[in-house]
Amino acid sequence: MTRTHPRVGPLVARTAAAPLDVDALLDDPGTGIIVCCGSGGVGKTTTSAALALRAAERGRKVVVLTIDPARRLAQSMGIEALDNTPRPVAGLVGAADHGGSLDAMMLDMKRTFDEVVEAQASPEKARQILENPFYVALSSSFAGTQEYMAMEKLGQLQRDAQAAGTYDLIVVDTPPSRSALDFLDAPERLSSFLDGRFVRLLLAPARGPARIMTAGLGLVTGALSKILGGQFITDLQTFVAALDTVFGGFRARAQQTYALLQAPGTAFLVVAAPEADALREAAYFVERLAEDRMPLAGLVVNRASPPPQGELSADEAMAAATRLRRDGASATAPLTAGLLRLHADRQRMVEREAALRERFAAAHPSVATAVVPALAGDVHDLAGLRVVGELLADQPS
Ligand SMILES: Nc1ncnc2c1ncn2[C@@H]1O[C@H](COP(=O)(O)OP(=O)(O)OP(=O)(O)O)[C@@H](O)[C@H]1O
Ligand SMILES: [Mg+2]
Q1: Total-model pTM
Q2: Distance 179 CA to ligand 2 centre (A)
Q3: Which of 71, 178, 379, 381 to mutate to test the pocket of ligand 1 (most atoms within 8 A of CB)?
Q4: CA-based nearest residue to 341, from 321, 324, 325
């Protein structure tokens, strides 16, 4: 039997997987961090914001760290200013009665990078780095910087929340990368860039010991200078040397944040579209979390096709459409046949998605799953987020 939601209509039929109990997760005072991961465009930002809102309205003191939310959604949460500061969200329902609150912020990647440099280096050295053209380029465009900075910001929020008691739940959105794994790989990628041969070579004179190295470097930089210009090389060397002195701090903090992600109070939610590629990607991610001993709370299959109304199966609808085309005498017969075929298409889509979810559940039977149907329009305000939150929590048991 198909269940229905008062505002949304028919819901997705039950899946073979254990249902995810979202409210138990949100209400558990032991849940301190929820990280929403997934490949591009699957609904990470929407899910993070919806969970944060629901948790706040159920009485938690929540901050949600969003990344690149759509403009209208950001507006409705009062976080249009890209200033890296959590701001209270207005328009919550019942949160105050339960002692809950919601702050939201949008990650400013460049600002976060600057803050790390400022915290790690002397004012003079920080200025040198921040003004360096390589820094300006690296801090805003290096692959993985956004992921790394999201982690950095999470670490900062967590330290502040612990010190000041401001929040008891941090919900983290992750950047729109191609693969969910990018989030976990970012610190390693940034480290290996800075430990890479090119960077080592540029750092060599500052470190000694070998005259040979210096001579080697002289040859390399000499050649590069000819191609790229002396100023370019000087800038690059100054930058790498300066960054190297602060990077010890970077690395230590990345390790701390990684440890935070492994702590029992952290819950990862993997968001996926009900498509083969997205679910395959979600399966890789689930395996990777297990390898890295990071706590997985469950899978959210978002934008699932809601089943069509009525009990007619796809085959029955197609058979009826064929009969109508063959025998139908009335003027409305072609229209009815068209509607029957549409019904059959939707029914098949729902069955295909259920089969994909079942395949995932068979391979990962311990992963609790929530299925959220596709709403008719985009989710761009608190009312829409509230509906997504209700749908997340309303899983068949
Ligand atoms: N269940 C849903 N029903 C209808 N629309 C949805 C649903 N979930 C998300 N959307 C819409 O899909 C679009 C993409 O969602 P969202 O921005 O949350 O994805 P994302 O994973 O954060 O994307 P990116 O990888 O680009 O950051 C948005 O316009 C959002 O309003
Ligand atoms: Mg997003």
Answers
A1: 0.83
A2: 13
A3: 379
A4: 321
